[in-house]
Specification:
Length: 100
């Protein structure tokens, strides 16, 4: 698979829970393509319009919660395009895996 195709596949599989080794390699290529930066991952995963977080399954929500937590820790704030989702996470008490 070409690098560009691998990155696109990794973007698609990033929010899915059960991955094969090949799919995990594609996800790794995707995250490397954005410099392993959680903000870069979120920017690539979050469409500019017609996106509802309500369509995500629990694992995908956990993945986003983890990314948002890492963004806050790294940059000291959550960017505007993620604040609505973060407020929903906070409202319902959803936390990244491993948080208590």
């Amino acid at each position: 698979m070409e690098t560009g195709q691998l990155v696109r596949a990794g973007k698609y599989w990033y929010l899915l829970e059960h991955l094969t080794e090949a799919e995990q390699a594609a996800v790794a290529a995707f995250t490397q393509s954005v410099g392993n930066c959680p903000l870069g991952v979120c920017r690539k995963l979050t469409p500019q319009q017609f996106f509802s977080y309500h369509t995500l399954d629990y694992y995908a929500i956990q993945q986003y919660a983890n990314l948002i937590d890492r963004i806050g820790a790294r940059f000291g704030h959550v960017p505007n395009f993620l604040t609505a989702f973060k407020s929903q996470l906070d409202k319902f008490g959803l936390k990244p895996p491993g948080d208590t």
